[in-house]
């Protein structure tokens, strides 16, 4: 059997982890992933990898310190090290790093995959893995019966999916066929309409359920035992088959979760478990992209589970990743049709144009080339990406409505970070019928979706719900491509200029809440001109440019990875405020009407939600201070006021429940009320580890160790650095 070649990737950026793991896995590597230097050092000490790819800015231990320590370990001096960094420049540090740490390469971010592949081949030489050997080993694992790796929880999931699929359809269930509505387009529609509910998909005997909350896929369940956690971890070489079997035996004896047992066995650490759980969800989801047939039905009345692990990906990232995995050349050509002569235009609506994609250098260059002046054939001829990769990219952006394909060329280049120029009506709106129309369904009933701004081309929110069983997501079939794409021998349009980059997603929910609430409050007190930062005599072009700059800065995708419902709401309100100002001021009649209202001081009042959010945050911070002083009675008052002002923030409910419990831990009614508030916190924000931790403490003190264990396990899944949860699980394990 061929020896596994293991790569240890150490980076705290989940998107970088995902990109490197995908590239290395496709090359035949066994991949281990860590997010901080301390855990990575433990992993290295236990199982020495064949190569280490190391980010220099890491939590808990700096990358240089990690490199120094492993070079001092037995055998650690010979392991190839590849430094990656977005802060340190190779030109200034590479020579010193080679001298001090003997690194094989220093690659700057954003990463160039071709450079990474070349560096690995140079560092490993003959030891570079064989893709054929890795595929054969993977096939060997896949050929084994799934029951060998499945635990009781996986079997419960299978039973749950089967039961849900057999239940009679709800009154508002909507059905369709994946042959008529491919999954990427279906997924985008549900995300764009902020749908909440369950999407059941069936293909022969395979059934999956994708749960959505406010347009975000939050959970995926499957009736395939082959997608259970144990088999996935064995297939990815995170654990051995023997370790998997040993953990299953302990599970039967203790009724504990497999991940927790593997941590106690020393096979993985909490960060490995978090990565594996995220990988399991993505595996279940991305498999659906490969389905060419099947049926779907969406039920907006279904109860959505609160999951501690989710997909930290924006809609476009999900679609693009799924298309890359599930679409071969034949499928892409069938999906796109004959598009070689069509021109690729950036979407005019900034809500669509400025979506986060998470691109590498080559993809960024190709995106910037889509300026309305180049046809698909020309973009292929640029040879920025291989033909199949480029077509996948174009199809994913089209599904996400970031681009439109038209027969007419733009009057002048329009890049993704620029406002569109004024254009003739037929070209701007596509009224000639030559552009590919976006796929937008009529809205679901109000109870199943959040309020949103009505965009051009969308039905008003007051329209009636679609009839039962209607396929409101279908599109006319596209014309199949008639021949291979020609890439050479065509004249190219002007060179690309500039670099398109998207802002990173902030991760601190509290700082996000404070910043967004302050911005929203400030905007609500300004007139439309001040809101956009322009003078009252500004031209339409200046207003458009100002709007596009703000729309890019405050696009909701910047906060897509945040777990706080309040953060999502505040971001959406800010985007709506600047959009309303723009839509009013670029319309001559509406602008004239608004200017009269300003002159007469007769503008309609704007709800002070920004001020309310700031007030709620102030009460919460005061409550925290009082809690630290153990003044629980006054702290409880502050937390109650925060919840009254802002009832959608899970953190506020968590501290309200925990503080109430501190006042009267022996009173059954108080305990029940504390549980109620904490469960509400979990429902609103399932990825807030403290809520799970507090529930665990309450159940432990009330002599319910099994329930306590479940909550501590959830806290650890949410936050692998939650030392309190790890300590409690170890204590509970010793008590058995």
Describe the structure.
The protein has 736 residues and is α/β, with parallel strands linked by helices. Helices cover 50% and strands 9% of the residues. Helix 13 (315-326) packs across helix 18 and helix 28 runs antiparallel to helix 29. It has a five-stranded parallel sheet with strand order 2-1-3-4-5, with helices on both faces. Strands 6-10-7-8-9 form a five-stranded antiparallel sheet, with helices on both faces. Helix 3 (63-71) links the parallel strand 3 and strand 4 (81-85).
User: What spatial order of strands do you see in the largest sheet?
Assistant: 2-1-3-4-5
From the N-terminal CA to the C-terminal CA, the straight-line distance is: 40 Å
> How large a portion of the residues is in β-strands, by DSSP E?
5-15%
Rg, nearest Å: 27 Å
Counting helices, strands and paired strands, the structural category is: alpha/beta
Largest pleated sheet: 5 strands, parallel
Number of helices: 31
What is the arithmetic mean of pLDDT?
81
- DSSP summary, beta strand count: 12
Form type:
globular
């Amino acid at each position: 059997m061929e020896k596994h070649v293991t790569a240890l990737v150490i980076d705290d950026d989940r998107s970088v982890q995902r990109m490197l793991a995908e590239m290395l896995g496709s090359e035949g590597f066994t991949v281990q992933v860590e997010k901080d230097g301390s855990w990575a050092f433990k992993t290295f000490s236990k199982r020495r990898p064949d190569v280490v790819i190391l980010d220099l800015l890491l939590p808990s231990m700096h990358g240089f310190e990690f490199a120094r320590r492993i070079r001092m370990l037995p055998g650690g001096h010979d392991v190839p090290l590849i430094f990656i960094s977005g802060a340190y420049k190779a030109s200034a540090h590479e020579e010193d790093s080679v001298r001090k740490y003997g690194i094989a390469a220093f690659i700057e971010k954003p990463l160039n995959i071709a450079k990474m592949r070349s560096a690995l081949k140079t560092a490993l030489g003959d030891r570079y893995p064989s893709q054929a050997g890795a595929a054969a080993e993977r096939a060997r694992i896949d050929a084994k019966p799934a029951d060998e790796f499945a635990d009781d929880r996986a079997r419960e999931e299978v039973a749950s999916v089967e039961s849900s699929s057999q239940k009679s359809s709800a009154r508002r269930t909507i059905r369709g066929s994946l042959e008529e509505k491919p999954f990427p387009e279906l997924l985008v529609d549900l995300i764009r309409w902020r749908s909440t509910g369950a999407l059941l998909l069936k293909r022969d005997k395979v059934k999956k359920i994708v749960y959505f909350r406010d347009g975000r896929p939050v959970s995926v369940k499957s009736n395939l035992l082959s997608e259970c956690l144990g088999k996935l971890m064995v297939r990815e070489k995170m654990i051995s088959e023997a370790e998997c079997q040993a953990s299953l035996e302990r599970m039967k004896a203790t009724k504990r979760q497999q991940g927790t047992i593997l941590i106690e066995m020393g096979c993985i650490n909490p960060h490995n478990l978090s990565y594996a759980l995220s990988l399991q969800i993505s595996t279940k989801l991305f498999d659906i992209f490969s389905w060419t047939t099947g049926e779907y039905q969406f039920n907006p009345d279904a109860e959505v589970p609160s999951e501690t692990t989710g997909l930290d990906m924006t809609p476009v990232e999900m679609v693009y990743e799924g298309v890359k995995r599930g679409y071969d050349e034949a499928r892409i050509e069938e999906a796109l049709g004959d598009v070689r002569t069509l021109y690729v235009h950036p979407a005019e609506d900034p809500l669509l144009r400025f979506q986060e994609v998470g691109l590498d250098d080559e993809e960024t260059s190709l995106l910037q080339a889509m300026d309305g002046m180049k046809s698909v054939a020309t973009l292929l001829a640029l040879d920025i990406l291989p033909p199949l990769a480029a077509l996948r990219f174009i199809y994913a952006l089209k599904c996400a409505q970031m681009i439109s394909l038209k027969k007419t060329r733009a009057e002048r280049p329009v890049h993704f970070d620029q406002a569109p120029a004024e254009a003739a009506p037929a070209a701007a709106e596509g009224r000639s019928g030559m552009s590919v129309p976006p796929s937008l369904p009529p809205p679901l009933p109000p109870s199943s979706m959040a309020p949103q701004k009505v965009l051009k081309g969308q039905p008003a929110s007051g329209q009636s719900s679609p009839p039962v069983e209607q396929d409101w997501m279908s599109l006319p079939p596209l014309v199949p491509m008639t021949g291979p794409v020609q890439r050479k021998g065509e004249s190219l349009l002007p060179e690309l200029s500039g670099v398109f980059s998207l802002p990173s997603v902030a991760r601190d929910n509290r700082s996000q809440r404070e910043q967004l609430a302050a911005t929203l409050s400030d905007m609500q007190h300004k007139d439309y001109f001040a809101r956009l930062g322009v003078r009252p005599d500004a031209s339409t072009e200046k207003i458009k440019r100002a709007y596009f700059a703000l729309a890019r800065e405050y696009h909701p995708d910047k906060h897509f990875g945040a777990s706080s419902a309040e953060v999502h709401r505040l971001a959406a309100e800010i985007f709506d405020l600047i959009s309303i100002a723009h839509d009013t001021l670029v319309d001559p009649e509406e602008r004239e009407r608004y200017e009269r209202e300003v002159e007469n001081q007769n503008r309609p009042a704007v709800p002070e939600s920004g001020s309310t959010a700031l007030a709620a945050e102030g009460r919460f911070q005061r409550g925290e201070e009082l809690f630290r002083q153990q003044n629980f009675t006054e702290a409880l008052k502050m937390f109650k006021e925060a919840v009254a002002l802002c009832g959608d923030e899970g953190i506020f409910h968590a501290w309200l429940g925990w503080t109430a419990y501190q006042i009267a831990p022996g009173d059954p009614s108080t305990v029940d009320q504390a549980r109620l508030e904490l469960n509400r916190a979990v429902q609103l924000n399932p990825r807030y580890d403290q809520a799970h931790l507090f529930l665990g403490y309450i159940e432990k003190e009330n002599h319910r160790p099994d329930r306590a264990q479940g909550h501590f396990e959830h806290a650890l899944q949410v936050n692998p650095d939650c030392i309190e949860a790890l300590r409690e699980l170890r204590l509970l394990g010793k008590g058995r």
